Amino acid sequence: xxxxxxxxxxxxxxxxxGDPKAHPEPDAKNNxxxxxLKALYKAGAEPGLRLVDxxxxxxxxxxxxxxxxxxxxxxxxxHIQAWDAWAAGAVNAPLVVGHxxxxxxxxxxxxxxxxxxxxxxxxxxxxxxxxxxxCRAGRRHMCIRTSGLGVNRDGAFAEYVVLPESNVWVHRxxxxxxxxxxxxxxxxxxxxxxxxxxxxxxxxxxxxGPIGLMAxxxxxxxxxxxxxxxxxxxxxxxxxERIGVDRAVNVATGRIVDAQRALGMVxxxxxxxxxxxxxxxxxxxxxxLNHGGRVALLGLPSEPVEVDWSRVITHMxxxxxxxxxxxxxxxxxxSAMLRSGLDISPVITDRFPAxxxxxxxxxxxxxxxxxxxxxxxxxx
Length: 380
Ligand SMILES: NC(=O)c1ccc[n+]([C@@H]2O[C@H](COP(=O)([O-])OP(=O)(O)OC[C@H]3O[C@@H](n4cnc5c(N)ncnc54)[C@H](O)[C@@H]3O)[C@@H](O)[C@H]2O)c1
Ligand SMILES: [Zn+2]
Ligand SMILES: [Zn+2]
Prior knowledge:
The strands form 4 sheets. Strands 3, 5, 6, 9, 10, 17 and 18 form a 7-stranded mixed sheet that branches. A 6-stranded parallel sheet has the order 13-12-11-14-15-16, with helices on both faces. The protein has a 3-stranded antiparallel sheet with strand order 2-1-4, with no helix packed on it. Helices cover 29% and strands 25% of the residues. The protein contains 14 helices and 18 strands. It is α/β, with parallel strands linked by helices.
C-alpha cells in the first residue's frame, strides 16, 4: 500500500491553489448531512452496548474523516460495556465507543496540511489541549486536559470516525490493516519497553496480555539478553513462547525465582515491565530485581498495592509510571521497528466482522486469546 506521488505540500498546495479538480473528493465525502453510519453505541449510564445508526460526522477545518477498516478491542471497551465503577466515573455517555483502529482518509478539512485523502492511517486516541504547560513543552502525553477517543468523545467502533489532523499517523511504508489497527496498544508496549535501555539487560514482564506480549517482542528486538514473562493463562503463555521469550512462567503454579535459577541468573532482573495490573505483580517484581533495577508500570491496578518501600530505597530502585504513548516519538519507534523486522503479528489471534461484535467482545473478555480485532467493512 506504499503511496508514491508528489510531495505532500505540493499536493496540498495544488489543491488549495484553486484547481477544483485537484482535490475533488473531500467535500463530497465530508458533506454527510442526513446520512447515517453504523456504530457501537453506549446509550447511557448502564451496562451494554448497541449497534445502532448514528449521524455520519463531518471533518471540521483541522480534522480528518476516516473510513474505519479494522478496530481492536481493549480492556477499556470491556469496562465501558460492563459499566463498572471506573466506567461510571470516567466515561461521557452517550457516545460511540472504541479507540484502537485504522482506516482510510476520505475527507480532510480546509486547514489540514499533510494528511491526504486515500492515506492509510491509525489514530492516536488521546486528544490533547495544545495549550497547557506540558503540551506547550512538547510533552503532549502528559496533557492535563486529555480527552479520550471512545471515552470522552465519539470513538472508532463505527464506519467513520473524525480526528484532529495532529492525532493521525499516516502509514507511508504500507502495512497490514490488522497491525495498523492495534498501534494504540502496540504504542503502550513500545512506550513502556523503551522507557529504560534494554540492550544486554535481563527483562521481566508481568502479564502476557496483548500488551505484555508485544513488549516481549520489542525487548527481544532491541537487544535484551534474557526475557521472562509471567501470566496465569496457559494459552497466553504459549503465545509468549511463540514470540520467543526465554521463559514463560505461570505464577499460579510456578515461581519467578526458579526461572532465574534455571536461566543461570544470579543477581536478579535489571528491568521489569508491569503489564498485568494485578496487585501481586509489583511485590513479585521487587523481590526479583537486582539492586539499581528499574521498573516501568503500565498495568492499572484495580485496588491499592502494597510496596516494600525500604527495599525500593536501599536497593536504589527506580519506578516509573507510563501512560499512553509519547506523541509522536513512540509512533516513530513503532513504524521504524516494524520496518526493521519486528514481528508482532502472532499477538493478533482473532478477527470478527463488526456485525458479530458480541462474539468479538466475549472472546476478548475471556482473556485466553491474543488481540481481537473487528472488521468494520463487514457491519451488515
Ligand atoms: N497506562 C496505560 O496507558 C495503559 C494503557 C492500556 C492498558 N493499560 C493496562 O495495561 C495492562 C495490560 O493491558 P492488556 O490489554 O494486555 O490487558 P490484559 O488484561 O489482556 O492482560 C493482563 C494479563 O495479566 C494476566 N495476569 C493476571 N494476574 C497476573 C499475575 N498475578 N501475574 C502476571 N500476570 C497476571 C492476565 O491473565 C492477563 O493475561 C492492563 O492492566 C491495562 O489496564 C494501561
Ligand atoms: Zn486501548
Ligand atoms: Zn494540554
